[in-house]
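Backbone description:
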Amino acid sequence: MAKSTASPRSQSSYEVLGMRLQKAINNPMAQQRKYAVLERLADDQPDDWVQILEELSDTDNVTVAYRDDGSVQVFWTVVKDD
C-alpha cells in the first residue's frame, strides 16, 4: 500500500473559530437551555467573527443577541415535526 505524500491541510482561522463556537453550542448545558454565550477571543479574526455571526443570524429559528460586554448570546428553537 502506497503512503500518501500529501501533507495535512492546516485549518483556516474561520474553520478554527467555527469549531470552537460549534463546541460551545453543542455543549450539553447549552443544548438543554437552548442558548449559548459566545465570546470573541483576542486571536479571532474580526472578519471571521462577523461572517459567522451573519451566518448564524441568517439561520432559521436562530436569534443572535449582542450583549453589552461584547459577547453574543445565540438562542434557538427546535421545531417539532408533525
Notes: The radius of gyration is 16 Å. The chain is about 40% helix and 15% strand. The mean pLDDT is 91.
